[in-house]
Amino acid sequence: MTLDVSIIIPERVFWEKRVEEIILPTLSGQMGVLKDHIPILTGLDIGIILVRQKSSSDWTSLVVTGGFALINSNNVTILVNEAEFGSEINVEQAQISYNSSKHALEMNKDIKRKFELTLNLKKARARFQVTQLKK
What we know:
Layout: E1 3-9, E2 12-26, E3 29-33, E4 40-53, E5 59-72, E6 75-80, E7 83-85, H1 91-107, H2 111-133
Parallel strand pairs: 1-6
Antiparallel strand pairs: 1-2, 2-3, 2-4, 4-5, 5-6, 5-7
């Protein structure tokens, strides 16, 4: 038996597959999900989702920008604002974005702006980290 995974963004169903295993970036750390997982609703952080498809040792990686995951009866429904396949991210652009986001946060003196810059850095870090998984 496998898991039926749906990743939904505001505009559409982004991705649907039957998979063996999924690792989610929850607000309290990474959470692995296999078949017959207990039902749970969890918040997702900005980060990387890793998916292993049936009868494969290869993992598919996606960057998501927070949301929620509902796990119930071997169905995993993921609702996020943005999703992007790791394989579609340009390594050089991700590195530049990560470095500039890090620099902007370090140079910032405005407390109110720090929150936005921190979110930008988390997204840029996830995008850069996922490019390193492809190697």
